[in-house]
């Protein structure tokens, strides 16, 4: 299997060659040169498999440059009930992403049972093990520099902690994250993890990362890397739970299901799109946004209009507060018939902060065959949906999953089970749960009192040179 760029001007690469990098050299995103097609016989055989074995079968189709036995061991060590130990609602942790039945034909699928209680752990934990393996083989090392306002940074730290040849430098806005989020990150004592609280906003932290990454010489000399959401391995790892959810919600492979996906950067639902292209019987992919509805607008109108930072709202489902969906280019590549020239033309506009409009194009006429529908959910919808799920089903939802359920209910079809992907646990969003239900969400026992643990964090001014010096002194 080789990987090509959505913009068409990069040499095809093997999986391990794109694992540690970001964008393709032509500015595009990597995708497999074709999607492996799953036969009915394979699908029948896979129904019996454990999550780890299923993950191996699927990933082996995309990762052909790691010896099968090694890949199998990496996957087996990642997808264990000990790593994904936070199952709720009576779910079986051995299933890794168990379903919770709300009513007949309506489920949530728990993707947030990993160490940081959010779905980013599903892919990030595998990424940690893949990084360590490939770096060791090549005798290389990497220094990951990132900025976070919460979920991604902690998922990256928990995935990379203790990994050989990897150091993580994570910038966060000083005093802007919840006490729980701070405790999750800053209480890590591993000596390859460095937390830097920048006295400024998330954007200041982000700007520093950009400034350092734009310094090509520094980046090369000090082996600076990233683990952002466009990383292909993250998308690949996420394909697995669509298969698992399908098997758990159906009796036979003659049935179809729909998935509702709380979306921000389009990474999660992009994996669902690929699962569907591989032949998994998915009827609809229901894309849910919050007030930041750039993707809902596209699927309703054919117009993709990225927003400015000033136009991006801060909401109570903060992990979906995006103005531009970094993985969306992968889907558009398929929509335009995998024509890199067409993608380059569209993204020439996006890269200038402009919109594009496909509504009059021949491509838009084909949109229905991809199975997407969409909707949006506001703060009031979120509060009402959290109350509804608690009252009707005695299931407590987090704010992002509530957005997913709200939109899912608008698109249910008779006799097609609907699976709402649960992307975080309510324990991460205590304030909104209190507002909706007047109670505190239950926190997993092993995270009780995490705020009282000693913390390791360096508070620094948003000064690029000072932060570069800090890094260099620790490499
Ligand atoms: C990252 C995240 C999302 C959005 O996922 P994308 O892949 O960016 O679309 C939704 N919910 C939670 C809790 C997240 O952390």
Give a short summary of the structure:
With 475 residues, the chain is an alpha/beta fold. Helices cover 40% and strands 15% of the residues.
Comma- or semicolon-separated keywords:
475 residues; Rossmann fold; 5-stranded parallel sheet; binds pyridoxal-5'-phosphate
Give an account of the 3D structure.
The protein is an alpha/beta fold. It has a domain at 93-117 and 236-437: Rossmann fold, CATH 3.40.50. Helices cover 40% and strands 15% of the residues. It is built from 18 helices and 15 strands. It has helices spanning 15-19, 40-46, 51-62, 68-78, 120-138, 151-160, 179-186, 202-214, 216-221, 232-249, 267-277, 294-301, 328-335, 340-350, 379-393, 399-410, 430-437, 464-473; strands spanning 3-5, 30-32, 99-103, 106-110, 142-147, 166-173, 193-198, 224-225, 257-262, 282-289, 303-304, 356-357, 372-376, 418-422, 458-460. The strands form 4 sheets. It has a 6-stranded mixed sheet, sandwiched between helices. A 5-stranded parallel sheet has the order 8-5-6-7-15, with helices on both faces. It has a two-stranded antiparallel sheet with strand order 1-2. A hairpin with a 2-residue loop joins strand 3 and strand 4 (106-110). Helix 3 packs across helix 4, helix 5 (120-138) crosses helix 10 and helix 15 (379-393) crosses helix 16. The longest helix is centred in the N-terminal third of the chain and has 19 residues, at 120-138. The radius of gyration is 21 Å and the shape is globular. The protein starts with a strand and ends with a helix. The structure holds pyridoxal-5'-phosphate. Pyridoxal-5'-phosphate (PLP) binds at residues 118-120, 151, 229, 262-268, 319-320, 400, 423-424.
């Amino acid at each position: 299997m080789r990987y090509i760029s959505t913009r068409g001007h990069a040499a095809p690469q093997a999986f391990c060659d794109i694992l540690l990098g970001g964008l393709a050299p032509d500015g595009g995103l990597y995708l497999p040169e074709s999607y492996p097609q799953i036969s009915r016989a394979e699908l029948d055989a896979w129904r019996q498999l454990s999550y780890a074995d299923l993950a191996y079968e699927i990933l082996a189709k995309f990762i052909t440059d790691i010896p099968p036995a090694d890949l199998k061991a990496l996957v087996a060590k990642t997808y264990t009930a000990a790593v994904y130990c936070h199952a709720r609602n009576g779910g079986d942790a051995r299933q890794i992403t168990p379903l919770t039945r709300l009513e007949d034909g309506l489920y949530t699928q728990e993707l947030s049972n990993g160490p940081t209680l959010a779905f980013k752990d599903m892919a990030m934990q595998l990424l940690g093990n893949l990084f360590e393996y490939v770096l060791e083989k090549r005798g290389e090392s990497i220094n990951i520099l990132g900025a976070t306002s919460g979920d991604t940074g902690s998922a990256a730290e928990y995935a990379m902690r203790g990994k050989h040849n990897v150091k993580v430098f994570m910038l966060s806005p000083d005093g802007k994250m919840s006490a729980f989020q701070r405790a999750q990150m800053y209480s890590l004592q591993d000596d390859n993890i460095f937390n830097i609280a920048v006295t400024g906003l998330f954007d200041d932290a982000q700007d520093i990362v950009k400034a350092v990454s734009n310094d090509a010489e520094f980046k090369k000399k000090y082996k600076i890397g990233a683990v952002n959401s466009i990383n292909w391995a993250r998308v690949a790892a996420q394909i697995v739970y669509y298969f698992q959810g399908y098997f758990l919600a159906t009796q036979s492979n003659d049935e179809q299901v729909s998935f509702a996906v709380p979306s921000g950067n389009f990474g999660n639902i992009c994996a669902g799109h690929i699962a569907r292209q591989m032949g998994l019987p998915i009827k609809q992919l229901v894309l849910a946004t919050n007030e930041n509805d750039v993707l809902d607008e596209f699927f309703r109108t054919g117009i993709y209009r990225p927003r400015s930072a000033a136009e991006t709202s801060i909401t109570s489902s903060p992990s979906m507060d995006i103005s531009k969906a970094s993985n969306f280019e992968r889907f558009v590549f398929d929509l335009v018939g995998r024509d890199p020239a067409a993608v380059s033309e569209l993204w020439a506009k996006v890269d200038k902060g402009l919109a594009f409009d496909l509504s009059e194009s021949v491509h838009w006429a084909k949109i229905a065959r991809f199975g997407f529908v969409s909707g949006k959910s506001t703060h009031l919808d979120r509060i009402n949906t959290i109350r509804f799920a608690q009252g009707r089903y005695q299931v407590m939802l987090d704010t992002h999953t509530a957005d997913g359920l709200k939109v899912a209910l608008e698109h249910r079809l008779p006799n097609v089970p609907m699976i709402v992907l649960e992307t975080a646990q309510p324990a991460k969003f205590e304030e909104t749960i209190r507002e909706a239900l007047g109670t505190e969400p239950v926190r997993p026992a092993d995270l009780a009192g995490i705020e009282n643990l000693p913390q390791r964090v360096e508070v620094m001014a948003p000064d690029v040179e000072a932060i570069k010096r800090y890094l260099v002194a620790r490499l």
